[in-house]
Design goal:
Structural class of chain A: mainly alpha
InterPro entries (chains A, B): DesT_TetR_C, Homeodomain-like_sf, HTH-type_TetR-like_transc_reg, HTH_TetR
Strand content of chain A: under 5%
Keywords (chains A, B): DNA-binding, Transcription, Transcription regulation
Oligomer: homodimer
Organism (chains A, B): Streptomyces shenzhenensis
Pfam family, one (chains A, B): TetR_N
CATH topology of chain A: Tetracycline Repressor, domain 2
Number of helices of chain A: 10
Largest interface: A-B, 41 and 41 residues
Distance between the termini of chain A: 64 Å
Protein name (chains A, B): TetR family transcriptional regulator
């Protein structure tokens, strides 16, 4: 409406920038409050915009904003496991876990609310997004371990470990972020090697992997 | 209304018996169909009673019946872990797992739907029931292992393993109940010992437990 370029404080955001700004504001609120305790008013206030503007971007209201925020967090989470494929395999897994734990730390309440279930904002769509992240994490882990075509026993072992890591994250948040990050990370990696070693006794593919990990070290 | 005792086929059930009959009928349906695909009509038909009778017992409708069925299943599931406290500790854990896997086998679809989340029948109440079962399972495991006052590292290890066992159950159902029950059970017990052994390196209480388990064997 105005031909002059607005000053930086009033710079007009592009549609994508505005959308990201609202999602970021929502994620910062979800980090400390359960999704059901965050209103669109709160998001408008945190983003310093009007409520109608929030509704213009998310006409489906809170549920739509929540799902958009969840998708954005899911993309960020998938990046955590996308480590360059070089260096010792377990070191790469450690780096991925460091980033994962930092993500959990940052999104604390929203992460817990999502994974603990029973939330009013949980739907088959949100469940599908979370399952997508789990699948992506498993794929990244296979890549880091140099596995193509994981068999059923190796797949079950990896999926069980991913679930156990999620459980550990929730307990870690619950217990005031104890043990310290480095200890948690090393402990989780050691548990992974331990359960792989158990599976190796029942599965030649996993046995070959465990032998390769020992050579790395 | 009639002074003669009715024949066995038409025996009038007590309130409690009728309630149990309806819950059993619901559980048998939930074993093969997702909760959202089971109507009160289906339950009435399976129990061979009228729909108004189902509503008389469960005036809150399908959600109330679902929660009652879930509570009944939760009690049964808690029993799985209530093994007599004698004999070698890991043998007791194996027996408990045998019963747990039989439970999963029997309640297949309902078990999956409940744990996979995003179901329309999932509420904070159903989540609380499931969490109650997890807590009870952890308590039974401490008893079997002869642990009083588990510290944070041992607690985290046990809770992670319980979650991993749940994940394994879901995958096992998904993959046509493979591997065979005995192999799955032994594999899960071996994984438990393996992760306890990892934790033993960081926690004296767990180290004492692992030493005691080795003496049992």
């Amino acid at each position: 409406m105005t031909p002059q370029a607005p000053g930086p404080a009033y710079r007009r955001l592009s549609v994508e920038e505005r959308r990201s700004q609202l999602i970021d504001a929502a994620l910062s609120l979800f980090a400390h409050r359960a999704p059901e305790e965050v209103s669109l008013d709160d998001v408008a206030e945190a983003a310093e915009v009007s409520r109608p503007l929030v509704y213009r971007y998310f006409p489906g209201g809170k549920q739509q904003l929540y799902e958009a925020a969840l998708r954005s967090a899911a993309e960020e989470l998938e990046q955590c496991f996308d480590e360059p494929r070089e260096g010792p395999r377990l070191a790469r897994l450690s780096h991925a876990l460091d980033r994962y734990i930092a993500f959990v730390d940052q999104h604390a309440t929203g992460f817990s609310a999502l994974l603990q279930g029973g939330s009013v904002v949980e739907t088959s769509r949100t469940t599908a997004i979370v399952d997508g992240v789990r699948r992506a994490a498993a794929e990244h882990i296979y890549h880091h371990l140099g596995i193509t075509g994981p068999g059923p026993r190796l797949r079950m072992t990896v999926r069980m470990w991913i679930t156990a890591v999620e459980a550990a994250s929730l307990i870690w948040l619950d217990e005031g972020r104890q043990p310290p990050v480095e200890e948690l990370r090393d402990w989780l990696v050691e548990q992974f090697v331990a359960v792989l070693t158990v599976t190796a006794g029942r599965d030649p593919q996993t046995a070959a992997l465990v032998a390769a990990l020992a050579e790395d070290a």
